[in-house]
Inverse folding.
């Protein structure tokens, strides 16, 4: 029953009881009892108000991916003490390093560095964004300035990087333009490991293939790790090209790969990879043909987008 209806009913009942207040002791007691109940009800219910939820429980919609907010409508929910705070995420000017615009741009720098320096034994990931800014550049797009820490996952070596990134404006998709310089990131010497891997697999009688790397439980055989890492580097060419301000890519799985016969001293591979676009939560299938050698690095020769899989789910995340 609505509160105002309850109050009206109780007031009527009380007035009726008070009219007999001095004629019957039992009724007199009932009147006081009803009066006390009325006061308690008013104190407990009060007037209708808008309440703010407090506490440490998850916010509404917390089952969504934390990066699932479109650009321009970014918000971040934090808990300070026991009060929930929702704040607008800045997309221009000085950026909060922990917010989505800065981290999305920084991940593009990660892909760029992998296309330049990646190998079966060197795979670079974003560790931390220290500072960032963004500005609209007339007739060109949006330019980001970033200070970052990048980490090479296999050797666990970190380095400080400065990067400038331009997302081109206008219609159509074009790859971001990136310039980056790093200190200390490439200190680990992978020459011996790369040369051994190259010599082991350059012979035509030792061609390798594999599938479901990692498997549905996140596991992979140790012998498959260099091929998984090589796939991550090659996939960075696709992820760099396809990235914009509203995307956030990583490689989820190698569906299958086949080593082809060595040609012009280059190891050659056909890969089918699953890329996870974390904003839309799509799993996107790509096939790619690429080569690798210690001297030439990774060279992507062909890429082919596969039909969309509406029921595909990302396997457990594995980076090393």
């Amino acid at each position: 029953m609505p509160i105002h209806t309850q109050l009206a009913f109780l007031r009527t009942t009380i007035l009726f009881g008070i009219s007999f207040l001095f004629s019957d002791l039992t009724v007199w007691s009932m009147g006081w009892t009803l009066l006390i109940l009325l006061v308690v009800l008013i104190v407990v219910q009060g007037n209708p108000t808008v309440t703010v939820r407090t506490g440490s429980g998850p916010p509404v919609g917390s089952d969504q991916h934390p990066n699932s907010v479109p650009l321009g409508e970014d918000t971040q929910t934090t808990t300070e003490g026991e009060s929930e705070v929702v704040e607008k995420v800045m997309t221009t000017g000085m950026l909060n390093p922990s917010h989505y615009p800065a981290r999305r741009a920084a991940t593009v720098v990660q892909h760029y560095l992998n296309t330049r320096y990646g190998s079966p034994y060197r795979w670079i990931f974003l560790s931390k964004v220290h500072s960032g800014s963004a500005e609209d550049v007339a007739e060109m797009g949006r330019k980001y300035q970033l200070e970052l820490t990048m980490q090479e996952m296999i050797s666990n070596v970190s380095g400080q990087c400065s990067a400038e990134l331009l997302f081109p404006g206008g219609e159509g998709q074009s790859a971001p333009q990136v310039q980056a310089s790093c200190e200390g990131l490439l200190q680990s010497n992978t020459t011996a490991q790369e040369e051994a891997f190259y010599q082991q697999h350059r012979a035509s009688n030792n061609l390798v293939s594999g599938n479901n790397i990692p498997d549905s439980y996140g596991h992979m055989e140790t012998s498959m790790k260099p091929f998984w890492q090589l796939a991550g580097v090659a996939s960075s060419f696709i992820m760099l090209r396809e990235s914009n301000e509203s995307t956030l890519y990583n490689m989820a799985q190698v569906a299958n790969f086949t080593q082809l016969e060595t040609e012009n001293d280059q190891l050659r591979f056909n890969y089918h990879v699953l890329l996870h676009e974390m904003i839309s939560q799509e799993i996107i299938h790509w096939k790619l043909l690429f080569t690798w050698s210690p001297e030439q690095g990774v060279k992507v020769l062909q890429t082919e987008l596969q039909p969309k899989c509406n029921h595909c789910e990302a396997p457990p995340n594995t980076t090393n």
Notes: The chain has a mean pLDDT of 79.
